[in-house]
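agent> Task received from the user: take the single chain below, predict its 3D structure, and emit structure tokens. No templates, no multimer pairing.
agent> Plan: (1) validate residues, (2) run structure prediction, (3) serialize to tokens, (4) report one or two observations.
agent> Step 1 OK, no nonstandard residues flagged.
tool_call: predict_structure(input=
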Amino acid sequence: MDLFTKNQLFQTRRSFLTNTGMGLGASALASLLPQSVNAGQRGLHHKPKAKRVIFLFMAGAPSQLDLFDYKPDLHKLFNTELPKSVSNGQRVTAMTKGKEQLVQPSKFKFERKGKNGIWMSELLPHLTETVDDMCFINSMNTTSINHDPGKTLFCTGEEMPGKPSMGAWLSYGLGSMNKDLPDFVVMPSAFWSGKVNVQGLYSRLWGPGFLPSAHQGTALQATGDPVLFLSNPKGISKDVRRRMLDAVGKLNQKHKAEIGDPEIDTTISQQELAFRMQASVPELTDISKESKKTLEMYGPEVMQKGSFARNCLLARRMAERGVRFIQLFHRGWDHHTRLPENLRGQCKDIDQPAAALLKDLKQRGLLEDTLVVCAGEFGRTVYGQGKLSRDNYGRDHHPRCFTAWLAGGGIKGGISYGKTDDFSYNVVENGVAVRDLHATMLHQLGIDHHKLNFPFQGLDQKLTGVEPAKVVKGILA
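)
tool_result: status=success, residues=477
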């Protein structure tokens, strides 16, 4: 027997054993397991308050001390050593290890805003107008002290790469609300004001991990086709593309019948979605019919493709069209030096557009069932970096406490939740871990975070992992 025939026979025998022996064994095993293992994992577990999420991720970690967590008495302690009783020998980065930890107060003014007198920095004048719709969690904390693990934890629930992203979990658990658009769309800003210490963004932050690949996030591009390869090649009409897709679909169906790989179904469905997106995505990204008043509300940069302002407007348009999870990334927040200068520019990038997004959603009746979340991967230290002065300083990474804000989707507005000590160093009341925030977001979408799971590597995997996680009921309306 020649080698080619032997190889074909081997492949056929292996496929037979895989698809019959192992397949029947898996079916028999499933029938012996308790039904609760396979039941109730997907779909709604209770009545939801939100239908969709818009997640504004400030990559690089904004300084909570200069934006939200006001500590007026720090001015009296400028350039003095942070008390050891506060730092308590806690882990620091290699950039700080062995160096003096000198207190650096914020140079920016704060004022009480809204009905409940929420402290807001002068750097966010537009967001202060929406403060009564916002909930500020000042007691966020994380286990990550470096950027990539911190971003990975926030986006996937685990510091190590490889787990499904939150948007992928929602796509898997709740399904689609629009057959012509992806369940999960990602929009990184193409430019930003802070030009120092900018880390990369990796597609695994919006990847499906071990979930079926249909739940992968779709990234919109700032230049060219909004989605890669969306346009037909030159000389290929829509009718020709339809016939080609039909032919490829028949081949894929035949291949699936032979080997039984469920990923082939994913390929077929994604090819069909891509065909429909050739009409739906250009309509989505065309803002020419938006009113002048709406465009002006988002600010002048809304006309620039890839700007945070443009992405905020597109996020509202996606919310209208039933996209389940919309994630915006804005980089440039890693301010180890020249923080006042760089932070001012970053806030100018996002302040008016983020406020416009909240106002726009609210006036269209969408904020009620749209959960908007804004956070970075951790906070910044009370002690400074570089040559310190009252007006020029930097801050190191700080996982012990930071601020995230939420709005809409059944969240109480006009409140501050949780407290930090007088140095914004340790949480002293109502701590909220990243996994707690994830559990709360899922809860508002009608999902019990314990029940949304997927069997992988001998474990019923879930977004919140194996550590205890709680729904933060104190912020729920």
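agent> Step 4: summary for the user.
The first strand starts at residue 52 and ends at 58.
agent> Done.
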